[in-house]
Amino acid sequence: MDERIFVGLTGSFGSGCSTLRKVLEKCCDFESVKLSEEVREETKKRGLDENERGNLQNVGNLLRKENGTNYLAAKANEKANKANGNRIIFHGIRNIGEVNEFRKYPNFYLVAVDCSKDNRWERLKGIYKGDLRLFERDDKRDKNEGLDYGQQVLRCVEDSDIVFINNENYMSPIKIEDELQKLFRIHLDLITGDKLRNPSEEETMMTAAATLALKSHCIKRRVGAVLCDSSGYIISAAYNEVPGDQEKCFDKFGMCYRDLIRSNFNKHLLSNFEFCPVCSQKLNIDGTICSSCGNDLSDLIPRFKALDKCRSLHAEETTILKVADRQINESVLYSTTFPCLQCAKRILHSGIREIVYVDPYPEEESIKMLEGGGVKTKKFEGVKAQAYYKLFYPFREILEKEIRDRLSSV
User: What CATH architecture does domain 5-192 belong to?
Assistant: First the structure.
């Protein structure tokens, strides 16, 4: 059995993956293998500037498209197998195919390094020469290109075993390394087995929420939520689902009902056009595609979420509905996703004092509403559901052995 320990690092650029890698190399006897090395070598072969992020993204995509989404990970594995030590870091994971390749190792743990967009911009604005537009362009592409072989950082983060928050901006490189080592130690000790512990309340509740999310039939986003009282006891739990015995969206419509609403709206709007706004030819469309130029004209129409048309009860609102006759002031809501505006209103009205979440939700209105109402929001940090049992069960075994030893000595 392979007893080596493998740590994979993923996260948006500027989050601190590279710095954490250096810390693990310097202080914790890890050897690193960078997936980007293969990309940089190929970029130079093609005569392109390897310091231009767009070039690296394009070449990385091309390599995965031509050789499989696990290609860069397989190349990294070849280098890892030649390493001398028993602790390896895989740095620069950006596609779920790479994650799946590394999961062949029994002792592989994927760490998502998380940092707010504002802090990442502060760290990188010098590199971008103050051009926020270019930063946002690369950041959007990096997170999810919608391609099987493309950049999929959000999917990798969702699949991670541990979330590590790195929001602080320290004044010196030495201070950064010292602080990161201290902050990451609680997670590293679990991975290496050097110092085991019981799971925290947040880790336990978020694992329960993530487990519930698996029951959802939602095509777009599966969400689980757990509501706890001020003493940490679960008083309600739910997942997002179409209520009652109604057919699920996929069974009834073959797609998300909101997508159907948007699609029908786009078709209706385009039916009023006489000429294509892209090629100016007489408009004859197949669905939303111009038959003359081949462009999808729906891309020109402003997008809208149509959340009020969603047929599902959201996980957060269902937890509140289940305890409508109980006092839930000062309770804490654990949700796998930050609440939307509809749920934010119900949360604020219910008296919930804090929300702990994993995945952000791109809706500024819900953030402003919760903050304005004094509801504390906190990004989850720690061990996620996928690795919960694997990392925490050994501590239970130690406790049970200690109990047996004490009993035998009586």
Answer: 3-Layer(aba) Sandwich (3.40)
